[in-house]
User: Fold this.
Amino acid sequence: MSYAEVKFYSETLHMDTGIGVILPQEVHGIGVDDTVRLKEFYPVLWLLHGRSDDHTIWMRRTSIERYASPFGLMVVMPEVSFSRYLNMVHGPRYEDYLTIELPRLCKQLFPNMSTKREDNYIAGLSMGGGGAMWAGLHHPDRYGTICMLSTGGVAPLEGLWRKTGGGDLAYQKCSRSIYGVEDTDSLEGTEYDILKIIRDTARIHRHLPKVYHAMGTEDIRYPAAMKIKETFESIPGNPYDYEYHEGPGSHEWGFWDQWIKNFLNTVMRKGDD
Assistant:
């Protein structure tokens, strides 16, 4: 595998930003499966970071490059600050950047990347898991599979786990910038309600992304994950081909490293069948 850092000016964000990109190679060095037969157009994993992180974090804290290698998988890791991957009420339009501008730019820079929806996977941890769900459900024509790990920071479910009473000023400030309100639980039934989006997308769209969901049993966000799980499982016929997994772990990198590996081993091997 090779790794590239790309810096550029985003017309959508109106500022410079950057991405990290893992690119497949047929032959590798010591300690990695030696030879990989590459497809003409590489499948792509759009891999999203959490609220406190940036585009370098997956490379620094996990073995994502090694996990992607056997599958000839290209991995794109963008940077979006604390935006939750949404078009912010008071800030840049990160959803448009992630789902429209960035794929177009990456195709120009890396012409061997596939644009087929079944070859495009979107995944993330914590805020990035919510972002993967948001982008994948709003753009089911672009992504064949969504993977969300340890997701909890989504409206209107944060009251299930986050301490309330005005103590989390950073959360309130972020919420004002993103949604225009301080209390995300007040967004139930609105365009930001993730449970409503899950149901509405299934009702409106014929072709839906598959959904892979993993949560640590010691994660304080576990109650929010259960609400998401209940909503997916309540839809008759399981149109998302939804699968839920859980295991020991809290909100930490040991869990995410293991479960991004499990996700790739599951979905990429299915794709080869």
Q: What stands out?
A: The two ends are 24 Å apart (CA to CA). Strands lie at 2-10, 15-23, 44-48, 74-78, 120-125, 145-149, 210-216, 243-247.
